[in-house]
Amino acid sequence: MLDSTLQATLDGVLARNPGEPEFHQAVREVFDSLAVVQERHPEYHDMAILTRLCEPERQIIFRVPWVDDRGNVQVNRGFRVEFNSALGPYKGGLRFRESVNLGIIKFLGFEQIFKNSLTGLPIGGGKGGSDFDPAGKSDGEVMRFCQSFMTELHRHIGEHTDVPAGDIGVGAREIGYLFGQYKRLTNRYEAGVLTGKGLDWGGSLVRKEATGYGATIFAQEMLGARGTSVEGRRTVVSGSGNVAIYAIEKVQQLGGIAITASDSSGYVIDEDGIDLELLKQIKEVERGRISEYAERRGGRSRFVSDGSVWNVPGDVALPCATQNELHERDAKKLVENGVIAVSEGANMPCTPTAVEIFRDAGVAFGPGKAANAGGVATSALEMQQNASRDAWTFDYTEERLTDIMRQIHTNCLETAEEFGRPGDYVLGANVAGFRKVADAMMAFGVI
Ligand code: GLU
């Protein structure tokens, strides 16, 4: 229950941003956690910290015209929401997907503020993207789209201003075209303006693996706090993009058995454990469908086109696909099947009711803003390498990532404890992420 001042602030935010259900969902969840902070820190309310935090510092919406392979002119919409720069330059990915709209970018940008704060690194929060879907487009079309997108975006970003990266639909290919156009327009080799770059031109080792690795490390830490580990655990994973692939890789490295992967056409279950090389070949190289995995793998694998991947029994669940992919009935099924830990590799993949079911059942639940922070944390490490014109080894970078994930886990756990909710990682992540940003905003006065 929110007190009346917090409720009034929340009502104001919701009324001011109509028709943005994902943004409302993300804001509500944070407000629910912050009731305990508000009691101890009335000064935050006096300085309208929450009202200011929920209002992006700047929102840019622009036309992205491009010419397809048949010579037709196409028009998409581009977004960059520069949400909060209290802790550093705006930082966050670009999502290219048909369903993208302002509300989705705002939910992602809002989450990013707290996530980036939790990394302990000097990065603010932002997010961007377009309703353009690279799937099914030729390389030439993707290039022309990216060049047009950057032609507008370049005037708003910079290594000290705003540093985009990838998200769904934006991988190394797209970052390459975007960086090339930025370099051409500005006549500067400003490597720190984008992260997720190729290894030959300013990218960081481990960045590609970082989000997925981090989500599994977070699961390992949560299990460690309960005296157990990922080793020998059946792990159910959704998605088959960058996050899912490397979450599976880390599960395997830790001795667990990842048995599923999915895409929008269905899921595969492989009782012998996912063959990662085959999955990478199909998804990273050929950009194919998940059903091909079962066709080529045979054995004890099969493709399921209808039904939910969450019906598959497992000890650990790693939702790594997209927002609101794991519903109430899925959470009930997972609990019924004995799940003990859920770590969100994607942003907000579990609905609020699903999260409640996990909480009531005593399942260790790692919210995305903590569990998937490894990606953006390693982006910040890429920025450090760019600033010092250096390139670190894989082992050193992975060590830094692992340390950061452990620190986030400890921070969430200790903060939850401090506020009388032991084991509540949602509360811990929201409060710990918020406090740092709020204190910086207090220091800066009303801006
Ligand atoms: N898109 C990723 C996220 O949701 C990474 C952002 C980044 O590296 O800037 O955190």
The CATH class of the largest domain turns out to be: Alpha Beta
Oligomer: single chain
Structural class: alpha/beta
Based on Cα principal axes, name the global outline.
Answer: globular
Main sheet attributes: strand count, strand direction, barrel closure = 5 strands, mixed
DSSP helical segment count: 17
Query: What is the name of the CATH architecture of the largest domain?
Result: 3-Layer(aba) Sandwich
Provide the helix percentage: 40-55%
Average pLDDT across residues? 97
Describe the protein's architecture and organization:
It is a single chain. The chain has 447 residues and is α/β, with parallel strands linked by helices. It has three domains: 50 residues; 131 residues, Leucine Dehydrogenase, chain A, domain 1 (Rossmann fold, 3-Layer(aba) Sandwich); 158 residues, NAD(P)-binding Rossmann-like Domain (Rossmann fold). It is 49% helix and 15% strand. The chain is built from 17 helices and 13 strands. The chain has a five-stranded mixed β-sheet. Strand 1 and strand 2 form a beta hairpin. Helix 6 crosses helix 7, helix 9 packs antiparallel against helix 10 and helix 15 packs across helix 16. It is globular, with a radius of gyration of 21 Å. It starts with a helix and ends with a helix. The mean pLDDT is 97. The structure holds glutamic acid (GLU). The site of glutamic acid (GLU) has 10 residues, from strand 3 and helix 15. Glutamic acid binds next to strand 3 and helix 15.
